[in-house]
Amino acid sequence: MTFLIQALVAGLLLGGVYALVAVGLNIIFGVVKITNFAHGELVMIAMYFTWFLYTSWSVNPYVSLLIVTPIMFISGVLLQKFILEPMQESSANMKIFVTLGLSVFLQNFALFLFGGQFRTVTVGWAEQSISVGGVSATYGRVIAFVVAILLVVALFWMMKRTMLGKALGAIAEDRDTARMLGIPVKRYYMIAMGLGAALTGIAGVLIIPFQAAYPLVGAHYTLMAFVVVVLGGLGNMTGALIGGLFLGVIETLTGTYIDPALQQVAVFAVFIVVLIVRPQGIFGGSARNAEVGLK
Fold first, then answer.
1. 253 pLDDT more than 60
2. What would you report as the CA-atom Rg of the chain, rounded to the nearest whole angstrom?
3. Is 171 helix (H, G, I), strand (E, B) or coil?
4. Segment (H or E) for 275
5. What angle do CA 192, 196, 201 make, to 5 degrees?
6. In the predicted model, is pLDDT for residue 93 greater than 60?
7. How would you classify the pairing of strands 129-132 and 135-138?
């Protein structure tokens, strides 16, 4: 029983990070209506940036949050302004091709700059374990989980209680009506993309103490984020949180009790079953609710 609880705890800690990345993807999809296949590569960029700050100037990864997060926010704004905005009215397929191309470009650019070696950041105290009732976890993973959950809750509050959140929700529901009401839609598109990129930046910083950076690491987080988003329902932030935790548990239990090589097989098996049984996602509602999202 202790072994099972240990696996469940490890899965939940991993799922919190997946949820944070997926919520950022959900914000982008819900507001900007773009399926961003380069989302995981933003996590990869943040990981490399954190590694660079650590190796070049000995900046503690958790301190680098104060540097990486605003830079990733600005990167998201620039990405929307100069790459995505010009094809905002294009077809969904065109948007997919553009973000896929951006993903391949970023992977190869990272390979060119840093090579294919795994880049790690060692934080001594973050690798130490905390044990409660025979169940242990490293401080780094616990911090990543706690920060991820707090950020997701803060986003829930922002979307419900602030003018920024209400404006983003209005655009997600009906951008034409929002524009007629005087909401600067293009400006809020950039804010939404910046928020999504900032969340990937925070996730990248939080996971670098226990996950090595390499050029293809972003592909894994893109896949996991899309599975979480589809499981929870497109545009549904609550579903993304619960879906992320559920996905982390499934992946960890498969690696613990079956075979680590079959972790992604189990994840996508669940994904396919959900698509067959409930195509709108476990927590998905009507098409309108999926468009509004962030509920």
1. yes
2. 19
3. helix
4. helix 263-277
5. 140
6. yes
7. antiparallel
